[in-house]
Design brief:
257 residues, globular
C-alpha cells in the first residue's frame, strides 16, 4: 500500500543531557502528527557524552549517532548530514528540555502550507518562562536579531534559537555552505540562508528553564557569533563548475499524498 504520509526527521544534538533527554523524546506528539499524515523519526547526536545520554535515547526509540569531536556545530552538522533523502521536513531542537517538542506542529505548518522554506522558533517573540533566559542573553539575542534584520534583510526575531524547521530542499541548499563547529553555527546558517535567497521567518514558541548545566559561554561564544555575523556580510555562494553565475535557491513543494 502506498505510504501517503510526509516524513519529518528531527535532529537532537546532545552533550551530557541524561537528565533531560527522556523528557524531550517522550513529548513528541506522534498521534497528532499521524492524524495530519505526518510521520516522525528522531536522530539523537551524542557529542561524545560522558554520561548515559545515548543509552537513554536508544531506550526511548531514537536512532543515536556519535560525534566524537566536541562542539555544537560538529554535532549539528553530523545530524543534518544524516537526514535521509526521502525526508520532507527537518526539525532541529536542543536536548535540554528548554524547547517543547509539542510545538513542532506550529513549526511545520508554515512549511507545509507553502508560506516559507525555513522557520525559526522565536523565544523573544514568544513566551519565556521565569528563569529560562537571563538579562545578558536576552539583550544579546535582541541585538544580534536586530543586526541580522538590518544588514541581511531577513525577517526573524531570534537568531540564536535552538529550534529550527526546514523544507528538505532548503536544507540541501544550505548545508554544503555551513562550516561552523561551535555555538556560532546558528548565526552562520541564518546569514547564509539569507544570502542564498532562502525564505526564512519566525513563529513564537515557549522557552523553559533548562535541565542540567548550560555549555554556553556568554562572552567567548558571543564574540564568535559576532565575528560570524561580520564575516558573512560579504559572503556569496561560489558558482558551480558549469556556470559563471551561482544559481539562486528555488523552493519546490514536498511530495503530496
Amino acid at each position: 500500500m502506498l505510504n501517503t504520509h510526509k516524513k519529518i526527521i528531527v535532529i537532537v544534538p546532545c552533550y551530557n543531557e541524561s537528565a533531560a533527554i527522556a523528557s524531550v523524546l517522550q513529548a513528541f506528539p506522534h498521534k497528532e502528527l499521524s492524524r495530519l499524515k505526518w510521520t516522525l523519526e528522531v536522530i539523537v547526536v551524542d557529542n561524545n557524552s560522558t554520561d548515559c545520554t545515548g543509552e537513554i535515547a536508544r531506550r526511548h526509540g531514537a536512532e543515536v549517532i556519535i560525534e566524537k569531536i566536541q562542539g555544537k556545530g560538529n554535532a549539528m552538522l553530523l545530524g543534518l548530514r544524516a537526514v535521509p533523502d526521502d525526508a520532507d521536513y527537518v526539525v532541529m531542537l536542543d536536548g535540554d528540555d528548554t524547547y517543547k517538542p509539542r510545538e513542532i506542529l506550529r513549526m511545520i505548518e508554515p512549511l507545509d502550507s507553502g508560506f516559507c522554506d525555513v522557520i525559526l522558533g522565536s523565544r523573544i517573540q514568544g513566551k519565556i518562562k521565569a528563569g529560562a533566559m537571563g538579562a545578558t542573553s536576552r539583550l544579546g539575542n535582541w541585538l544580534f536579531s536586530f543586526l541580522v534584520r538590518s544588514f541581511y534583510q531577513v525577517n526573524v526575531t531570534d537568531v540564536l534559537t535552538g529550534y529550527f524547521a526546514w523544507k528538505k530542499s532548503a536544507l540541501d541548499a544550505m548545508l554544503p555552505h555551513i562550516k561552523s563547529t561551535g555555538f556560532e553555527i546558528e548565526m552562520e546558517m541564518i546569514t547564509k540562508m539569507a544570502r542564498l535567497g532562502i525564505d526564512v521567518y519566525s513563529v513564537p514558541i515557549s522557552y523553559h528553564p533548562r535541565i542540567g548545566v548550560s555549555k554556553l559561554n556568554h562572552y567567548k561564544d558571543g564574540l564568535m557569533i559576532f565575528l560570524k555575523f561580520l564575516a558573512n556580510l560579504q559572503w556569496k555562494p561560489a558558482p558551480d563548475n558549469h556556470s559563471t553565475k551561482p544559481e539562486p535557491y528555488r523552493a519546490f513543494s514536498p511530495k503530496t499524498a
